């Protein structure tokens, strides 16, 4: 059975998914999280999808790797199926230039990580109200492309 609301979490903090899962239990029980730790892993995850995928992406900017969250956002916005996937930037950097860059690159919204567990619970109550109860997200079906399959040329 598919989770009701799959959220892709792209963040290099290995403890964050546990915190988010516990915080969302009471305020957003429909949420189910898949975490990847880098932009490279996120790109691999999206490219491997066949059928339904996440309904929302929570994306950190600083992923402690060569590729950052903006690189993954740029990938999503040029991907045939994923370009309409809502992306919520979830980061600690709230500089006006960072916020502007996120929106310029196609982020759906920009949020700052809460500093407490109570803050996370409130965050998910608000996230649920908007992204689950209010907004209509377009249905997105992913098709896994077989890049190794030769193209039929008609020449023998």
From TrEMBL:
Record keywords, A-Z = Phosphoprotein
Any idea where the Response regulatory domain is?
6-128
Q: Name its GO BP terms in alphabetical order.
A: phosphorelay signal transduction system
Q: Which SMART domains match?
A: REC
Name the InterPro entries on file: CheY-like_superfamily, Sig_transdc_resp-reg_receiver, TCS_response_regulator
Residues annotated with 4-aspartylphosphate modification: 60
Q: How is this protein named in the record?
A: Response regulator receiver domain-containing protein
């Amino acid at each position: 059975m598919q989770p009701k609301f799959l959220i892709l979490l792209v963040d290099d903090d290995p403890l964050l998914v546990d915190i988010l899962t516990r915080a969302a239990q009471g305020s957003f029980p429909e949420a189910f999280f898949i975490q990847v730790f880098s932009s490279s892993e996120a790109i691999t995850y999206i490219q491997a999808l066949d059928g339904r995928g996440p309904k929302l992406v929570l994306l950190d900017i600083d992923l402690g790797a060569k590729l950052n969250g903006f690189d993954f956002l740029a990938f999503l916005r040029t991907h045939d199926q994923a370009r309409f996937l809502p992306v919520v930037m979830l980061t600690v950097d709230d500089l006006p230039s960072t916020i502007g860059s996120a929106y310029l690159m196609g982020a759906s919204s920009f949020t700052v990580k809460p500093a407490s567990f109570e803050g996370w619970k409130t965050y998910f109550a608000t996230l649920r109200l908007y992204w689950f109860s209010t907004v209509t997200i377009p249905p997105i079906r992913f098709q896994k492309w077989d890049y190794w399959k030769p193209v039929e040329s008609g020449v023998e």
